[in-house]
Design brief:
By secondary structure, this protein is α/β, with parallel strands linked by helices. The protein has 2 domains: about 1-80, no CATH class; about 85-319, Metallo-dependent phosphatases (Purple Acid Phosphatase, chain A, domain 2). About 40% of the residues lie in helices and about 20% in strands. It contains 10 helices and 12 strands. It has helices at about 1-10, 15-50, 60-80, 120-130, 150-155, 180-190, 210-215, 215-225, 245-250, 270-275; strands at about 85-90, 105, 135-140, 165-170, 190-195, 195-200, 205-210, 235-240, 255-260, 285, 290-295, 310-319. Strands 1-12-2-3-4-5 form a 6-stranded mixed sheet, with helices on one face. Strands 6-7-8-9-11-10 form a 6-stranded mixed sheet. β2 (about 105), α4 (about 120-130) and β3 (about 135-140) form a beta-alpha-beta unit. The chain starts with a helix and ends with a strand. About 45% of the residues are buried.
């Protein structure tokens, strides 16, 4: 109830009391998930003990399991704020010689709002620049969708630069409603927003399809067709969610970069994410001739907890 109330307030107000209330309620909602699992485990173990005749101190067992749940929940809060740099090598057919050996940084799902703010984005920008990438890709959900001064929050992006550009594609949280304030703020910070369009960068085709245009197969295929992709040359597609990789593969895309899944953030949601997205839930995978890299994201949505998934910035090395 506290998290629902805090969420309703967060969509209208940005005051300090609302932010504090929202953060506390979000952390509590996450820890409550672990306490719920501890409760189920308690009754399950007790039931097995009754059937097998095992003498078990039920109350002591509950104390241990609930204590462990709280400890694990607090670790998950800490883990969600510890951003790693994940490195992977990508080999693309027909990649221009000029791109061999170059690096690109991928970041997604920052979720700027009442938990992650401008200072968090500033730290992410510093980490990315430290890697000296040749291109930078932001795969959507830079914002959480709650009340926010969009331009002020995006100001750290002014310092984000790369020799071959910084590119952004809208995610579902930017497109819950009117996305103009978010996209305008990102463009004002000097980032190229790709809205169902293709750009040529030193022989490499870089494309972006917004979340709203990629939800349905037919619309996604139509957006890709309108870009007149050259199948005989390497291409990178930036699309927020790995919902329809088969459509992108059929269009002749070489590499799709996505986020959105968060790898479920923590149990039991991580199990559900794996069931929905299967091999595309995280990391580098392949469908037909196309490769897909799905990032677990840098921020969090809802409870700021991660267990079994790490917040990350991805560095792609092209070969």
């Amino acid at each position: 109830m506290s998290f629902v109330s805090a969420s309703l307030l967060a969509y209208r107000y940005t005051t300090a009391p609302v932010r504090i209330f929202y953060r506390g309620a979000a952390v509590w909602a996450g820890i409550l998930s672990f306490l719920f699992l501890a409760a189920i485990s308690s009754w399950t173990i007790f039931g097995i003990a009754r059937v097998t005749g095992l003498n078990l101190n039920f109350h002591r067992m509950v104390e241990v399991l609930f204590g462990a749940a709280v400890a694990v929940g607090l670790y998950a809060v800490f883990n969600a704020s510890w951003t790693r740099v994940t490195r992977t090598t990508v080999r693309l057919a027909n990649l221009p010689e000029s791109w061999r050996g170059r690096k690109a940084a991928l970041i997604s799902d920052v979720h700027l709002g009442h938990v992650r703010n401008r200072s968090f984005l500033r730290r992410m920008v510093t980490k990315i620049l430290r890697e000296a990438p040749d291109a930078i890709f932001i795969a959507g959900d830079l914002y959480d969708g709650t009340a926010i001064d969009a331009r002020r929050a995006a100001e750290p992006l002014n310092k984000l630069s790369a020799p071959h550009g910084v590119y952004f594609v809208a995610g579902n949280h930017e497109q819950f409603g009117d996305d103009r304030k978010y996209l305008g703020a990102i463009e004002a910070a000097g980032v190229r927003v790709l809205s169902n369009e293709k750009v040529e960068v030193d022989g490499l085709q870089i494309m972006g399809v917004s979340y709203r245009s990629a939800v349905r197969n037919r619309e996604f295929a139509s957006a890709l067709q309108g870009m007149r992709l050259d199948r005989n040359r390497a291409s990178i597609l930036l699309v927020h969610a790995p919902d329809h990789p088969d459509v992108a593969e059929a269009a002749g895309v070489s590499l799709q970069l996505s986020g959105h899944t968060h790898l479920g953030q923590f149990i039991p949601w991580s199990w559900m994410a794996r069931r929905v997205y299967r091999q595309f839930v995280y990391g580098l995978s392949q469908i037909g001739k196309m490769q897909v890299f799905t990032s677990s994201g840098a921020g969090t949505w809802g409870p700021p907890l991660r267990l079994g998934s790490n917040p990350e910035i991805v560095v792609l090395q092209f070969e």
